[in-house]
Amino acid sequence: MSYAKDIVLQAAGELFGDKDATAVDRWATPDYRQHSAMAADGAEGLRVLVSALGPDFRYEPARVITDGDTVALHGTYRGFGPKPLVGFDIFRVQDGKLAEHWDALQPQADTTVSGRSETDGPTEVDALDQTEPNRALVTAFVQNILQGGKVDTITDYISTERYHQHNPLIGDGLEGLGAALAAFAEQGIDMVYDTVHKVVAEGSFVLTVSEGRLGSAPTAFYDLFRVENGKIVEHWDATPPIPAPDAVPHSNSLF
């Protein structure tokens, strides 16, 4: 286990597993920077969040991806509200503590077109020697397809043999993706990726963090891809709307 991953998993276990607010003193830097819309800035904001967690709160992890001092978690939160929240947390580790946090969470869907859940599928990080080629492949996919609209080259990136989809509105395979995009177009819904803020990669998994809009709504796009033999074969995501600045309890960017 990497140093950063070990720090994040221990800290998350005490903070969100044990719901121990005193763990903030052990695991958060004094200038802890918060980008989530759900908590105020600083270590004190994290302490307030943890102190408010109820008895029914629990976190169900699915995947952990480590890229240098950055660790991304993919999983499900239960007990935050009437419905479970599915999505991603990203932590930056500095001097053995949590220094910065971003997230993208959305209500768990009741059903999905593919029949897969929003978090099931392979969890083990493998092909570590392919981290950089996979990072380059996914980055090019986002730039050329999602941003550039060069859909005629999509098979350069996505497998034509197997593409498992976990987005609730999209079916498996290139056919499922095409059908969903056509349905969006019929409804006048554009999916626009304006800026790619982060690419977190480890082995077969690559997570991109982007800012754009879905229809007229400013949107955060967290897309997790699994790559196998040089092609994308699986996709998970969270696409929460970006709240207005006056609805966020700090002045930091969400990105």
UniProtKB/TrEMBL annotation:
Renumbered residue ranges of the record's region Disordered: 107-130
Domain SnoaL-like: 14-101, 138-235
Coiled-coil region: none
InterPro entries referenced in this protein's UniProt entry, alphabetically: Cyclase_SnoaL-like, NTF2-like_dom_sf, SnoaL-like
UniProt-listed SUPFAM superfamilies: NTF2-like
Example GO BP: polyketide metabolic process
Pfam families: SnoaL_2 (PF12680)
Record protein name field: Predicted SnoaL-like aldol condensation-catalyzing enzyme
Source organism of the structure: Nonomuraea solani
